[in-house]
Amino acid sequence: MSADPVRxxxxxxxxxxxxxxxxxxxxxxxxxxxVSATIDSYRPDPDYVSQTEAVEAVDVFSAVxxxxxxxxxxxxxxxxxxxxxxxxxxxxxxxxxHLLAALWHRAPGRKYFGTFIEYTALVGALGYADTIHxxxxxxxxxxDEFELDDPGDTRLMSRLLSELVHSGTRIAATSNTPPNAxxxxxxxxxxxxxxxxxxxxxxxxxxxxxxDYRRRTVAGHAGTVPDGDIEDAIGAVGGTxxxxxxxxxxxxxxxxxxxxxxxxxxxxAAVAFRHVRQFTSQTDALRFVAFVDRLYDAQVRIIATGLxxxxxxxxxxxxxxxxxxxxxxxxxxxxLTSSD
Length: 340
Description:
single chain, alpha/beta, Rossmann fold, five-stranded parallel beta sheet, four-stranded parallel beta sheet, 15 helices, about 40% helix, cell division
């Protein structure tokens, strides 16, 4: 007897994820779509020279792991390239995470790759001292989506990274644009360095300009299906799938810490939402952005009825300080609802 290729989990809201310190550590590797990311697989846009320059910066930064002790690199005077930290500044969809993952793959020995939320959750699960003990001695710690809009957690991470740098660990980071920075990343570098002032002198800032690479191949709106066709759309995906009312998912996300969203979507091939509508609460919208990031990392397909998901953020939200986050989420929602 052949097994049904679709095993539907009744509802996403029935999932009550927990996450331990050990589970967080196990997830401190690049997301699924970047497990084989390399410098060679990064495709710089020829219209933006900064993308090629970013590739060169990764080569220089990683040279400390490949150059011999008698190489010219170590005989040169100290230059920005020799600094122990590197920060990728730029808009969404220009390949910052790809470059971060490529750098992680080049690093030798023990190394970690996670989002800002995962590292702060690790401190919450293990405590500050035990987190330092765990990470100390790593060749590289990568922080994707460094959150500049949470002053307390930003200071915590600045202190933690300072200790790691002093112990010889190298740091690489990307960042979200902070509140009130409406320039699509143009002010992110300044704010990043200000907020981690104890570390600022140890970071080389690499500006990456360009267009959202997802829009190069995917255009238009997020895909939708008629409400009556959602079961058939689920059946066409295969694998474990959930189906929920959109409002119930939004309510459920409020009961789950964002650090647990990674386990909330673990093992899913697709999630389906009925009756998608526009957000009226910015708090709900930002939680959904964090959830979309984890769906994207895990490459979980989205099937939806109602309003196209790239239209769920109201105009006043898109005009505010979190504009860049919303635009990134919209781009990812278009990609995840695409049938290509």
